[in-house]
Amino acid sequence: MTATVAVADTQPAPGAAPLTARAAAEFTGTAALVAVVVGSGIQATALTHDVGLQLLANSVATVFGLGVLITLLGPVSGAHFNPAVTLAEWWTARRGGAGVGAREVAVYVPAQLTGAIAGAVLADAMFGEPLVKWSTHDRSAGHLLLGEVVATAGLTLLIFGLARTDRLRFAPVAVASYIGAAYWFTSSTSFANPAVTVGRAFTDTFAGIAPGSVPAFIGAQVAGAAVGLALVALIFVRPTPTP
User: Fold this and answer.
1) Residue 6: predicted pLDDT
2) Distance CA 139, CA 113 (A)
């Protein structure tokens, strides 16, 4: 799993929060999100050997955790927690829409990546696992990469479609619900987030991904974000101003 974005009524106005506070929110939110994903996966495998129940527990915890984090931190940083979302918002801002600038991107993305790693280490520490142990869970198959393209495209379409229709106030519920569904309808179980992908390589547990699978997963996520933005432009056409 995972993802998120600026939340309309909770999206900070320019200059509303210092950049250091926004960076701290992105670090904390991404760390908490990965801790939820990894920790619930460890807990689930300790409680049952049924893989279906393990995935159910993992996805339910992620849905609730993600919704809370977007609601809590959206007013500070926009609650991206996802480099794909940050870069997509930067791209829309370059083309005349609202979004983050290059300075925010340069701060947000490192905060998200380091937060994801910290979250995986924290989850391992809470459950007595080795703090850092590279995952051996290979996820390099082509159908899994296609699942990541679909998962990230859908997430991008949802987020920026809500923005185009002025309904971002529904993002905490909508984004969390989408990720919960994508856990089950995508072959990859919907990582949809480069930072989360990197963080999950640091834990050899249920939610892990082998380091060798990470570059292709991130490439699929970037491609999915591009597809999602193209669908937003195609579906949510801006009204043509009357002369």
Assistant:
1) 47
2) 20
Q: How far is it, in rounded angstroms, from Cα 170 to Cα 195? A: 24
Rg of the chain on CA atoms, in Å: 17
CA distance 202 to 165: 38
CB neighbour burial string for 8-27, b if at least 16 within 10 angstroms, e if fewer: bebbbeeeebeeeebbbbbb
Q: What is the pTM of this model?
A: 0.90
CB 38 within 8 A of CB 123: yes
Cα 238 to Cα 32: distance, rounded to the nearest angstrom: 36
- Which alpha helices (H) appear in 7-97, and where do they start and end? 19-47, 51-77, 83-94
Q: Name which of 29, 126, 103 is nearest 68 in CA terms.
A: 29
The 10s digit of each residue's pLDDT in 119-174 is 999 999 999 999 999 999 999 999 999 999 999 999 999 999 999 999 999 999 99
202: its two tokens: 């640091």
Residue 3 contacts residue 179 (beta carbons within 8 Å): yes
b/e sequence 109-142, b meaning 16+ C-beta within 10 Å? bebbbbbbbbbbbbbbeeeebeeeeebebebeee
Nearest C-alpha neighbor of 148 from the set 1, 14, 50: 1
